[in-house]
Specification:
This protein is of the alpha+beta class and about 325 residues long. The strands form 2 sheets. Strands 2-4-5-7-6 form a 5-stranded mixed beta sheet. A two-stranded antiparallel sheet has the order 1-3. It is elongated. About 60% of the residues lie in helices and about 15% in strands.
């Protein structure tokens, strides 16, 4: 009602106005219309340019979404699109690397499985000889058993690594005393360590950690077992425990030959072997340290390896400590 009244009043004012008023209003309205077109074009041009860039990028072109500063909203939209493009490129690169790692992993597994299977097949064929002497018969049977056990260890390690990395087995967290855990590992490995004539002992104490006892036991077990494979008979292995900067530190030191002049990170790659162990004389599967790395990282920790100045290798595990009870 009020709007209608106002409109009617304006109409009466205009209708009673002299003719020159109309002569002034007409160009003014035209000027206003032209200015609105210019302003609309100025506002829409950055958006049109951005649309063309998006279409070019969708077609596979190399496009930069840098802002030009002419329109704040267009600049914000360009920044958002640029961030999405970078994220997409990063994810695509990660996907390519993951596919390469998976392909390499399958190739490595096939290579590692082929060796024991070839040995089993070859020795089984030799056993088919009816004139085979008993001594050779026992020898070939022993090789088959040894390679079968190695094959079982490899499969078990592969399954363990898969369960850790894909999270199919949840961590059963609890307070873990690392000294008691390390002592339990030494008690379990005693027959093997005695057979290899390795002298192993524990030094120091470290704060408790919140972790999965079984998996942390495997970390220490793999490190000690790995060290015992490379020390000479009568060699020494020290498990040192201490706390530092909110972390519980586990170091496993040996007086063996060390790992040479290589990048220590390579030691934790699947199936990586130093020159000293490529002959598989140590009996390892090449997955022990990869399992260690996966378990430690699942506990928000880190693991490193260094060559000791006096000779030998040192593996350092750091896991966040929990407050004293």
């Amino acid at each position: 009602m009020l709007t209608g009244t106002l409109a009617l009043g304006v109409w009466f004012l205009v209708s009673d106005a002299p003719a020159y008023i109309f002569a002034l209003l007409l160009p003014l309205g035209l000027l206003t219309f032209i200015l609105s077109l210019i302003i609309g074009h100025f506002l829409a041009e950055p958006l049109n340019i951005l649309e063309k860039k998006v279409r070019a990028f969708a077609a596979g072109g190399d496009v930069s979404f840098a802002s030009d500063g002419r329109l704040y909203e267009a600049d914000e939209l360009a920044a958002t699109i640029s961030a999405l493009v970078k994220k997409s490129a990063s994810q695509q690169q990660d996907l390519v690397l993951r596919e390469k790692r998976q392909t390499q992993f399958v190739s490595d597994v096939a290579h590692e499985l082929r060796t024991p299977l070839t040995a089993i097949r070859g020795n089984a064929d030799l056993l088919r000889d009816p004139d085979l002497p008993p001594a050779l018969h026992d020898k070939f049977c022993g090789i088959i058993v040894e390679e079968s056990e190695r094959l079982s260890r490899l499969v078990n390690d592969l399954l363990a690594l898969q369960h850790i990395e894909d999270g199919t087995r949840a961590l059963e967290l609890g307070r873990v005393n690392l000294h008691d855990l390390a002592q339990g590992v030494l008690d379990t490995l005693k027959p093997i360590l005695d057979e290899r004539k390795a002298n192993v002992w524990i030094e120091g104490e470290a704060p408790d950690v919140l972790g999965d006892r079984d998996q942390l036991r495997q970390v220490i077990s793999n490190l000690v077992d790995n060290a015992s494979r490379f020390v000479e008979p009568g060699g020494h292995i020290v498990i040192e425990l201490f706390g530092m900067r909110g972390n519980s530190i586990i170091t496993v030191k040996d007086d063996g030959p060390g790992f040479g002049d290589i990048d220590p990170k390579l030691l934790f790659e699947r199936f990586y072997r130093t020159d000293a162990s490529r002959a598989r004389g140590t009996g390892g599967t090449g997955l022990g340290l990869a399992i260690v790395k996966s378990i430690v990282e699942a506990h928000d920790g880190t693991v490193e390896a260094v060559n000791l100045p006096e000779g030998g290798a040192c593996f350092i595990v750091a896991i966040p400590s929990v407050p004293s009870a």
